[in-house]
Amino acid sequence: MTSNIAAPHLEGHPRRTGPMPNHAQGLGGGRSKGERVALIGLFSLAVLYTLYLARDLLLPIFLALLLSLLLRPLVKGLRRLRVPEAVSAILLVTLLFAGLAGAAFSLTDPATHWIKRAPVVMHEMELKLGDLRQSVETARSASRQIEEMAAAADQDIDTVVVRGPSLAEQVLTQSQVILAQAFIVLVLLFFFLAGGRSMLEQVMGAMPNLEDRIHYATIAGTVQKNIAGYLATVTLINTMLGLATAGLMAVLGMPNPGLWGVMAALLNFIPYLGSGVSLLVITIVSGLTFDNTLAIAAPPLCFVVLTTIEGNFLTPVIVGRRLTLNPIAVFLTILFWGWMWGIPGALMAVPILAVFKILCDAHKPLHALGALLGGKTPA
Q1: Which of 6, 132, 225, 265 could form a disulfide with 238 if both were Cys (CB 3.0 to 4.6 A apart)?
Q2: What 8-state DSSP symbol labels residue 310?
Q3: DSSP letter at 9?
Q4: What is the Cα–Cα distance from 279 to 300, expressed in whole angstroms?
């Protein structure tokens, strides 16, 4: 005796057997092309919104990952000397913290001084513009007349002026946020250095397919090798540029030469835009410091010579073809991450693009996109 309980169907509608029709497949497992495009678009928007909304959480994680890739070769070298990874991680994080604390302690006073002088700087630059001063004064006179007319018209209306936080208060608040995020980065960096290898081995071991293990282990090795080499090389080059900048600024009589050297080294991690910002700042400080035209022009001209040598000769020769990226893709990536995460995002834009390109090169469906981003990544 048979029973229909295990396979119920609506009364009056006979059960269909055989393959599902095309329209049913489109509503189920096989979606139409338009539906797939819509889902991809919605997913992309959700990812962008999440990246922007969670930037305070994601920034320390991304920065700690990049620093762990930079320092991983040192951990490997110490492991060959039979130093445990946890001990190596503590040593490297302590040295990094000491270096950052020393740099912050020595540069805080001059940086604070120039930040507080920002309103005065604009006025001093106006006085040194020479021929443009008269037009500025004319504009100010017209502005004062407009303000007097508006005040006469609204003299019977009580106004309340809400005073916002001062520049120093804003800098103090931002400094507290930066210190908190720096602490999180150091803690995450310790865990990535101490347990990153074992974590990766556990993930690979959980894959049932041997081919997948080999494939993703190769991708992880390529990412680590190329990104670590790139970051180490660029860090060394930028450090040399910062030292040369500080030395030249000291010889030319610029105030706080160490501050401008550190600024040049950090901003040079942002291709194209970083050196331009450094040049602008050095030009303004030089104009405020010196009165002679030749003395004013010397610091920015020397910095242009340094960045020209670095950008056109030193970096291409040393970096070589380790990571050949499309300049247009690099520029657009900097703009995107700068818009998403500000200056920290712009600093990390190129390493993020390099990792994404390596992932594209490792997956056949994304080979065309990887080729668009640059040349083939060496394994």
Answers
A1: 265
A2: I
A3: -
A4: 6
